[in-house]
Design goal:
By secondary structure, the chain is α/β, with parallel strands linked by helices. It is built from eleven helices and nine strands. It has two domains: 196 residues, Rossmann fold (3-Layer(aba) Sandwich); 137 residues, Rossmann fold (3-Layer(aba) Sandwich), CATH 3.40.50.1400. The protein starts with a strand and ends in a 12-residue tail after the last strand. The structure holds the ligand C=CC1=C(C)c2cc3[nH]c(cc4nc(cc5[nH]c(cc1n2)c(C)c5CCC(=O)O)C(CCC(=O)O)=C4C)c(C)c3C=C and fe (ii) ion (FE2) (2 copies). Ligand L6N33NVT binds next to α1, α2 and α10. It comes from Dongia soli.
Length: 349
């Protein structure tokens, strides 16, 4: 019998690969109706205006990382590790599909169609579901699949905020961060600051489950580490634009912790690889805030990246979606949740 051909598609955000890509990347982001909820002609104008205004700040951010985002090479490393973890399943090929910069959806859909898979598994590199990330990637994927006649059965893994491999990888890295803080500042009480990308408050009020799922991830890590409530806080970073965003903001929490002589251990809980939000915002800007207030320690825990526990977790999700023993297919047909009892991702339907 011929080997089953499986395509695994990793959804991620993407990032500029040169300084000249910064403005078109920002335009793509702000032209997304999941990010700016306006009708098309107006959204096009608004996206042009915001991209032009934001470009100088974004240029500075990417300059600090050598003029480009490392999100693609980091995602490629995860893709290679995941392919190895799935090689017993048959002929498995992993594709990367970025939302706002290359490789983008049309190109990837055509590559997947040309691979002629028997099954396609769509795996967002966003453990927590948001209308602004997973749902946005999924919508443009479906549109492109129709356009390019990709007809193989497709399954979306919607979210996995408490997937054990993800939680174990994050908890182990946090444990190492706490040990480092104790070595640098043995006298100081540590505070673990779980930091997630924020969202406009209106998006959450309209039913986006992202913040609830971030909270589920945080509680799972805190419980793995046996932390007390006073040992940790959840905070939200990367605010852009004039709207009110969910809080508390990571910078405020860091300033307060530093002023209270806490040793700060920052854990990125919604990013699974390194990019501007970790390497610049957390490592440079927020470290500067902590140093200026003489925090006894400021440790930034690395993202889970290609850590074996995380990759095993991702491979488990793919196996579940392919209908292997522990399949958790829900009532929505093609949609799979790692933990449906906690999942409120009906926003997808
Ligand atoms: C959990 C992941 C993310 C959510 C939710 C999210 C929502 C969101 N983002 C913006 C605006 C920007 N995001 C930018 C960069 C960026 N965002 C994410 C992830 C989420 N965004 C990542 C991984 C990155 C890094 C990309 C890279 O560097 O490779 C940027 C660009 C950088 C900058 O100018 O600060 C913007 C702008 C909004 C408005 C939003 C929800 C409405
Ligand atoms: Fe973002
Ligand atoms: Fe779900």
């Amino acid at each position: 019998m011929a080997e089953r051909r499986i395509a695994v598609v990793l959804f991620n955000l993407g990032g500029p690969d040169s300084q000249s890509a910064v403005r078109p990347f920002l335009f793509n982001l702000f032209f997304d109706p999941s990010i700016i909820r306006l009708p098309t002609p107006l959204r096009w104008i608004v996206a042009q205006v915001i991209a032009r205004r934001r470009a100088p700040i974004a240029h500075e951010i990417y300059e600090k990382m050598g003029g480009r985002s490392p999100i693609l090479p980091n995602t490629q490393e995860q893709a290679a590790a995941l392919t190895r973890a799935l090689n017993d399943l048959g002929h498995v090929k992993t594709f990367i599909c970025m939302r706002y910069w290359q490789p983008m959806t049309d190109e990837v859909v055509k590559a997947v169609r040309d691979y002629a898979p028997d099954e396609v598994v769509l795996l967002p590199l966003y453990p927590q579901f948001s209308t602004t990330t997973t749902a946005s990637s999924y919508r443009v994927w479906q549109e492109a699949a129709k356009r390019h006649r990709l007809t193989a059965p497709q399954k979306l893994i919607c979210c996995y905020p408490t997937e054990p491999g993800f939680i174990t990888a994050l908890a182990r890295a946090t444990q190492a961060g706490l040990e480092e803080a104790a070595r640098i500042a043995p006298q100081a009480k540590p505070l673990v600051v779980f930091s997630a990308h924020g969202l406009p408050k209106k998006v959450v009020d309209d039913g986006d489950p992202y913040v609830a799922q971030v909270t589920a991830s945080v509680r799972a890590v805190a419980s793995w580490l046996d932390l007390r409530e006073s040992d940790w806080k959840t905070a939200f970073q990367s605010r852009v634009g004039p709207l009110e965003w969910v809080g508390p903001s990571t910078d405020d929490v860091i300033v307060e912790a530093a002023e209270n002589d806490r040793a700060i251990v920052v854990v990125p809980v919604a990013f699974v690889s390194e990019h501007s939000e970790t390497l610049v915002e957390l490592d440079i800007e927020y470290r500067h805030l902590a140093d200026a207030r003489q925090a006894p320690a400021y440790i930034r825990v690395p993202t889970v990246g290609a850590q074996p526990d995380f990759i095993v977790g991702l491979s488990r999700l793919v196996r579940q979606a392919l209908g292997k023993p522990e399949s958790v297919q829900d009532g929505m047909g093609q949609h799979f949740c790692a933990d449906w009892s906690r999942c409120v991702c009906k926003a997808l339907g």
